[in-house]
Amino acid sequence: MYYIVRLNKSPDIKIIKINGVEPNDANVRNLSYLFTVPYNGVIRSTDVTNVGGKFLDWMLSEEGQRCIAQAGYVSLLSMEP
Fold first, then answer.
1. Which residues contact 72 (CB under 8 A, 6 or more apart)?
2. Where are the domains of the chain?
3. Do 42 and 53 touch, CB atoms closer than 8 A?
4. Other beta carbons within 10 Å of 69
């Protein structure tokens, strides 16, 4: 959805329903829309309290999720971008 909605907006490209499920943020978030690509945050176990861990904590915070939504991705939280 990010690619089509943000990067390559074109009236010739349509996001389709899969098994009758609409391609929207709520359905991507609750995993009922099956055509998605998850992003994972991975850090070393030794970095949990250092920069990597702090960044991952921020990404999962309300502020981090708001930035993710503003960038056009589907956040873990239900919010307006």
1. 2, 5, 6, 81
2. 1-38, 43-81
3. no
4. 18
The answer to whether 35 touches 43, Cβ cutoff 8 Å, is: no
According to DSSP, the residues that pair with 21 across neighbouring strands are: 18
CB count in 10 Å sphere of residue 43: 14
- Alpha-carbon dihedral of residues 41, 43, 49, 54, nearest 10 degrees? -30
Whole-angstrom Cα distance, residue 41 to residue 65?
A: 13
Question: In this structure, what DSSP letter does residue 76 have?
Answer: S
DSSP 24-59: SHHHHHTT-S-----------GGGTTSHHHHHHHHH
pLDDT single digits (tens) 9-65: 888 888 889 999 998 889 988 989 988 887 788 889 999 999 999 999 999 999 999
State pTM to two decimals. Answer: 0.71
